[in-house]
């Protein structure tokens, strides 16, 4: 009898052990499913959403619905795949902002975003990354001051902020960076002494305690500093003795009192940029709380039955709780706050630096002025899904074209405001006979208004003349002059401006014609992309004039010089053929023309049939240039300097050639009559 009871007990205990093992496996799966911190996924997604141009499609596999970001491009995780350790996305032409949410990636060791097109400021929230060892934001377009909170990065060994537009002085709290070995701040607009004074009100926390401001000694406090570069800023004073071991070239191009160093001129130093304050507002987040209920079984008189019931109930309850919660967490998708789609109530959570000095040299019009000039905004000369274009006459001034951005106030974010300012400032620096002249802008809150004011080009767009107007207006000679004008404009944008400027959607719709058919390149494409992104959170967008310009992706051609050169080749083909870049029946223009471009005897088939006369010598050089521009290997495409030289030297637009063409046309007209 005793053996029988022992056997029963052994069987029951084996059964319970199996249940416990099964439950333990379920719990492990549950923990594994939910092991990756949601804050880190949210931070990465927020970073992606603050990037509005990704021409190389680096962030394509950054899927907000994927709970495990360890396989995302540029992201490296810990060996246990439970934390993000590295973000390294360099040289990818990303254009956008640094999301403050990056500060939520607690265990991040390296943040490398070198050589992109990031704008805005360095978020102070990065200062909480206590394990960060490498911060590389060099070669971007960041502005504003270096946040003093950066001094809280007590583990950091390398900071690279070179080649940006940073302003203000060095924060004296940098003395707390005891492990800092490399600091690169060259080619910015920083001012003040290299050895910062301890006059800031901010005191970083070091090991849980606030550092005493009396102990701060600026860069001399960074005892491990071996490499540093402060060149080409606006620093004043002398070179600190504690930095005497650095090469003298690390201090050149400033306003220092050093007779053996090449420094800026007195005029430049007098006009050194002043430091600017910035305002930030932060959002508070609440941690997710998960509660579980405990279930208690009732005891029974028989100890074996009681053991069976109690243990079974507990195991079953734990199993069900683990299974249901795991399924719920694995299947449900965490809600992501999209920085591009914040409502008005969420705007206060953004950290965006608005540079009040950025547009100081650009004319600002009032809505009332533009309303009067454009006849109460009734003189509409163009429209699209994202904008309206009005024609106006300024009192005692030129004719104007006013582009009103069509976006609702609730969709307008701090990111967009900064982008608006940057683009207006960028457009305002264009000054060439073949680029559109920005006269000013309008920015008002009531009613909500964002407008751009351009010099009016009376003959509309090249697209309209090629595909909807009278083709006879664009003779061969006139088309050659338009081509040379576009080439001059692009050469100016790519070579003569620093930094270079590209047309995001270079096509015949971006070329406006003056009264004498002189071409003006106008940049509208980037506005379309950003406005559509803000409302729909979508990627690339289509355009009737630009669908077929790049074989592998539309966005790839929008944002770089080589993409502009490819688009220039397509534009040349459109001008000489009179065909749109894409049509449903015949597909891409470049595919249709390819078989003719390389055969001298077949080149004439490319020419617009409406043209009665053309010069074969011109056609020959144009086909040669088109082939060079559309080379699939972007590295083999010539620069606009070379292309412009080829066209200028081999296309004759002299008066004698034009008169000869005109006389032939008149003779043919006389014979026909």
From TrEMBL:
Residues 274-296 are annotated as: Disordered. It comes from Erythroxylum novogranatense. Its main location: membrane. GO terms for molecular function: ATP binding; protein kinase activity. Residues 375-651 form the Protein kinase domain. SUPFAM superfamilies: L domain-like (SSF52058), Protein kinase-like (PK-like) (SSF56112). Keywords: ATP-binding, Glycoprotein, Leucine-rich repeat, Membrane, Nucleotide-binding, Receptor, Repeat, Signal, Transmembrane, Transmembrane helix. This is Protein kinase domain-containing protein. Residues 279-291 have a biased composition (Polar residues). It is a single-pass type I membrane protein. InterPro entries: Kinase-like_dom_sf, Leu-rich_rpt, LRR_dom_sf, LRR_N_plant-typ, Prot_kinase_dom, Ser-Thr/Tyr_kinase_cat_dom. It is found in: Endomembrane system. GO terms for cellular component: endomembrane system. PROSITE patterns: PROTEIN_KINASE_DOM.
């Amino acid at each position: 009898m005793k053996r029988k009871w022992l056997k029963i007990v052994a069987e029951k205990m084996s059964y319970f052990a199996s249940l416990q093992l099964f439950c333990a496996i379920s719990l492990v799966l549950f923990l594994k499913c939910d092991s990756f911190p949601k804050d880190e996924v949210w931070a990465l997604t927020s970073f992606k959403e603050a990037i509005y141009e990704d021409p190389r499609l680096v962030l394509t596999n950054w899927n907000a619905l994927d709970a495990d970001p360890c396989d995302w491009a540029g992201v490296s995780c810990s060996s246990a795949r439970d934390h993000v350790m590295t973000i390294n996305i360099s040289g990818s032409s990303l254009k956008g902002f640094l999301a403050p949410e990056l500060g939520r990636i607690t265990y991040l060791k390296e943040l490398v975003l070198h050589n992109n097109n990031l704008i805005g400021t360095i978020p102070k929230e990065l200062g909480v990354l206590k394990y960060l060892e490498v911060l590389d934001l060099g070669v971007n377009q960041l502005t504003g001051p270096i946040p003093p909170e950066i001094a809280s990065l007590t583990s950091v060994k390398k900071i690279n902020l070179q080649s940006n537009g940073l302003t203000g002085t060095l924060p004296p709290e940098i003395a707390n960076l005891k492990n800092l070995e490399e600091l690169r701040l060259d080619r910015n607009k920083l001012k003040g002494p290299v050895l910062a004074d301890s006059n800031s009100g901010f005191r970083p926390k070091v090991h849980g305690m606030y550092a005493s401001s009396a102990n701060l000694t600026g860069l001399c406090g960074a005892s491990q500093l071996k490499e540093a570069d402060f060149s080409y800023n606006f620093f004043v004073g002398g070179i600190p003795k504690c930095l005497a071991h650095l090469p003298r070239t690390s201090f050149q191009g400033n306003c220092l009192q050093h007779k053996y160093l090449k420094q800026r001129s007195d005029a430049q130093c007098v006009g050194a940029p002043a430091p600017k304050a910035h305002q930030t507002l932060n959002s508070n987040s609440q941690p997710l709380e998960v509660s579980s209920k405990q279930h208690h079984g009732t005891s029974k008189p028989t100890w074996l039955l009681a053991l069976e019931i109690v243990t079974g109930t507990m195991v079953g309850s734990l199993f069900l709780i683990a299974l249901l919660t795991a399924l719920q967490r694995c299947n449900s998708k965490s809600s992501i706050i999209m920085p591009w789609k914040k409502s008005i109530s969420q705007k206060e959570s953004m950290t965006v630096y608005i540079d009040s000095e950025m547009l100081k040299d650009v004319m600002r019009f009032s809505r009332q002025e533009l309303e009067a000039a454009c006849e109460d905004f009734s003189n509409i000369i163009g429209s699209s899904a994202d904008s309206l274009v009005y024609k106006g006459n300024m009192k005692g001034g030129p004719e104007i074209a006013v582009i009103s951005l069509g976006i609702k106030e609730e969709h307008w974010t701090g990111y967009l405001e900064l982008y608006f300012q940057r683009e207006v400032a960028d457009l305002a620096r264009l000054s060439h006979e073949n680029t559109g002249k920005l006269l000013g802008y309008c920015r008002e809150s009531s009613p909500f208004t964002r407008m751009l004011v351009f010099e009016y080009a009376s003959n509309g767009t090249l697209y309209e003349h090629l595909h909807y107007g009278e083709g006879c207006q664009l003779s061969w000679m006139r088309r050659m002059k338009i081509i040379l004008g576009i080439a001059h404009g692009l050469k100016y944008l790519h070579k003569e401006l620093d930094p270079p400027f590209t047309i995001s959607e270079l096509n015949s719709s971006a070329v406006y014609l003056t009264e004498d058919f002189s071409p003006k390149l106008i940049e509208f494409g980037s506005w379309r992309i950003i406005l559509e992104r803000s409302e729909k959170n979508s990627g690339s967008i289509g355009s009737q004039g630009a669908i077929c310009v790049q074989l592998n992706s539309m966005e790839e051609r929008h944002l770089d010089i080589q993409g502009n050169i490819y688009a220039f080749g397509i534009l040349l083909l459109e001008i000489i053929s009179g065909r749109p870049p894409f049509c449903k029946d015949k597909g891409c223009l470049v595919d249709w023309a390819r078989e003719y471009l390389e055969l001298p005897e077949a080149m004439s088939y490319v020419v617009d049939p409406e043209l009665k006369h053309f010069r074969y010598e011109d056609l020959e050089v144009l086909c040669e240039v088109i082939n060079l521009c559309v080379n699939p290997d972007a590295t083999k495409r010539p620069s606009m300097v070379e292309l412009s030289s080829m066209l200028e030297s081999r296309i004759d637009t002299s008066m004698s050639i034009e008169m000869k063409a005109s006389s032939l046309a008149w003779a043919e007209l006389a014979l026909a009559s």
